[in-house]
Design goal:
Blueprint lengths: L4 E12 L2 E12 L3 E6 L5 H8 L7 E6 L2 E2 L5 H6 L2 E4 L11 H6 L14 H13 L6 H15 L14 H14 L4 E5 L7 H16 L3 E5 L3 H7 L2 E6 L2 E7 L5 H9 L17 E11 L5 E11 L2 E6 L6 H8 L7 E8 L13 H9 L3 E2 L13 H9 L4 E2 L3 E4 L5 H6 L2 E5 L15 H6 L14 H13 L16 H14 L4 E5 L7 H16 L3 E5 L3 H7 L2 E6 L2 E7 L5 H8 L6 H8 L2
Parallel strand pairs: 3-8, 3-9, 6-7, 7-8, 13-20, 13-21, 18-19, 19-20
Antiparallel strand pairs: 1-2, 1-4, 4-5, 9-10, 11-12, 11-14, 14-17, 15-16, 21-22
């Protein structure tokens, strides 16, 4: 039986100056199906969907809805054609409840005024406004409940947005477009911040909507979810249509080859930790945000050298604050952060130590000569001490034990603790938009110069290596980073931090928004750091990746550590349950402390 077409795009193109976002794209969406749209970063997925949703207008081509040509110049036009888009970043008013957000902007046609004088018309308008969605609370709640019951949503129309979890907010967004009568729904990365249980609930709802004849388009980077939920997959590459494949005929390797244009390996080779040693001890961290709300509650764990410690949790559970606290960017209420600096048998230098501090440590018996004899600077001049140190003859006896709580962010960085955090505003932390890639590399090295002139050769070489290895799309290494796409800016930031060979590397969401090829490159780079003896702390959103990449996984919920599991034996359901758990029994706490 021939399927009925809900939406069709023919030869659609979109240009931003000389940049080609989409070129001659054809796309067909059938009624009662779930279509996944895949592609690398910069392949034009979101631009194409934004044209359907009325955010952009195509420069070339035609769009047809239910067989008739549709001119969609705004989101309001899209609603007229019963098209609704659920964006990755929700468009909700926090101080309103669910029902108010769902009806916000919905206009009901006014009833005709019986009288013809001004007095009658005035009160007719007032009455119409009182009948709008913001005031018809009982009627709206009843309509919302009807939609929820039909598709299996769980929603409280009276609950304020600021009291909702991420999945509840997403539910409000979906119900909002359904309330407006949408038959074609576009979801942009809908599972990015959901637990496995929440993802399965969402998929159950989408399947019921599909059975009801709705057409659903999903943009996602998670190939396992594409295979689990979609009927067909449309693939874009460099802004052009590569083709469409039935999901039943696809697998991860085939989809990846279509996206990238070549075969790539999708295996993360996780090696066993070699001689792991305690590198970073976190004890009883407590932290409040600027509003006085506790965001870290008695957090304790140990990161070891030569391992990757994953951190899993629902968005906003304290992951960001935890890493920023370790990096010295947050002021703790209490707790200790003990860094075991691997200095044993290594030469002392003046890069991290002042002459005064070197003298103090020598008095404490912290140094030895190559023959094992304890260093004693008694009776030596400052010049003699400096000469011994600069010649590399003064060695550490043991590793240094340092409390990071007393250190500035710069001192912490100089100890070899690197924070690579990729926030929504990628240029908001670590990179300067108006500076080129070379100068952004130099931000980490200019202090090491030995003259009044900075050395640009090493940063330039590093910039070229990152551009080549991570396939950064840029005219040259001298292009300002603000001119790069979001994904390429992210590659520059993460590449620079990984290249610094840190003792502790904290990578938060390093592959957020990256295509699968670039993501696996980052995973392999993290593994190299682990094999080089670094303690890697990896905060990720994809539980499949956390389980495949990490040696241990720490789960955090509402600012508390709710469990630590072995990455080799853990499963998604176990981690998902821990992500939604906020309290521990005394027996569980003892078990976790023993891990």
């Amino acid at each position: 039986m021939e399927r009925e077409v809900a939406l069709e795009m023919r030869g659609v193109s979109k240009f931003f100056g000389q940049v080609v976002a989409n070129k001659n794209v054809d796309l067909t969406v059938y009624k009662g199906e779930i279509l996944a749209v895949l592609g690398e970063n910069g392949s034009g997925k979101t631009t194409l969907m934004n044209m359907i949703a009325g955010i952009y207008f195509p420069d070339e081509g035609q769009t047809f809805v239910n067989g008739e040509e549709a001119v969609i110049r705004s989101p309001q036009d899209a609603f007229k054609y019963k098209i609704g888009m659920i964006h990755q970043h929700f468009k909700l008013v926090d101080v309103f409840d669910a029902a108010q957000n769902i009806t916000l902007g919905v206009k009901t046609p006014p009833a005709p005024a019986n009288g013809k004088n001004a007095f009658t018309r005035f009160f007719s308008k007032i009455g119409h406004r009182l009948q709008s969605g913001l005031y018809r609370k009982k009627e709206v709640a009843a309509e919302v409940k009807k939609i929820a019951d039909k598709y299996g949503f769980e929603i409280d129309p009276k609950k304020k947005i600021y009291d909702m979890s991420v999945s509840e907010k997403q539910t409000v967004e979906i119900v909002k477009v359904l309330y407006r009568g949408a038959n074609i729904l576009i979801l942009d990365e809908p599972t990015a911040v959901l637990t496995p249980q929440e993802t399965e609930k969402l998929f159950s709802v989408l399947r019921k909507m599909k059975e009801d004849g709705k057409s659903i388009v999903i943009i996602t980077h998670k190939l396992n979810e594409v295979l689990a939920i979609s009927d067909r997959v449309a693939v874009l590459r460099k802004g052009e249509s590569v083709g469409t494949i039935e999901t039943k005929d696809a697998d991860e390797n085939k989809l990846t080859e279509l996206m990238v244009g070549k075969k790539i390996s999708l295996n993360i080779e996780r090696s066993a930790p070699v001689n792991p040693e305690d590198r970073l001890e976190i004890k009883g961290l407590n932290l409040k945000n600027h509003e006085g709300v506790k965001v870290l509650d008695d957090v304790s764990f140990t990161a070891k050298s030569g391992e990757i410690l994953g951190i899993a949790g629902i968005a906003g559970s304290g992951q960001k604050e935890l890493l920023e606290a370790i990096a010295g960017l947050q002021t703790l209420q209490s707790g200790d952060m003990i860094f075991h600096n691997p200095k044993k048998d290594k030469p002392v230098t003046f890069f991290h130590k002042t002459l005064r501090r070197v003298k103090e440590l020598a008095q404490e018996g912290a140094f030895r000569y190559e023959n094992g004899e304890t260093v004693d600077f008694t009776g030596m001049s400052d010049k003699q001490i400096k000469d011994l140190v600069n010649e590399g003859k003064v060695l550490f006896k043991e590793d240094e034990i340092i409390d990071l709580k007393d250190k500035t962010p710069l001192q912490i960085r100089e100890l070899g603790i690197r924070l690579s955090f990729v926030p929504e505003d990628r240029l908001g932390m670590g990179l300067v938009g108006n500076m080129d890639i070379v100068d952004n590399m130099m931000l980490r090295s200019y202090r090491k110069g030995k003259s009044m002139f900075v050395d640009r050769s090493r940063p330039g070489k590093l910039a070229d290596e990152i551009i080549g290895e991570l396939e950064v799309v840029t005219p040259s290494s001298h292009t300002p980073v603000r001119r790069l796409s979001g994904g390429n800016v992210q590659k520059v930031l993460v590449g620079r931090e990984i290249a610094s060979a840190p003792k502790v590397l904290m990578a938060a969401y390093p592959v957020r928004g990256l295509d699968i090829n670039s993501s696996y490159t980052i995973y392999n780079l993290l593994n190299k750091q682990k094999e080089n003896g670094a303690a890697v702390i990896f905060v990720g959103e994809d539980l499949d990746v956390l389980i495949e990449l990490c040696d241990r996984i720490l789960v955090i919920g509402s600012g508390k550590v709710t469990g630590i599991v072995d990455g080799r034996t853990a499963d998604k359901s176990e981690i998902g349950l821990l992500m939604t758990k906020t309290k521990k029994t005394a027996e569980e706490s003892v078990k976790e402390a023993a891990v």
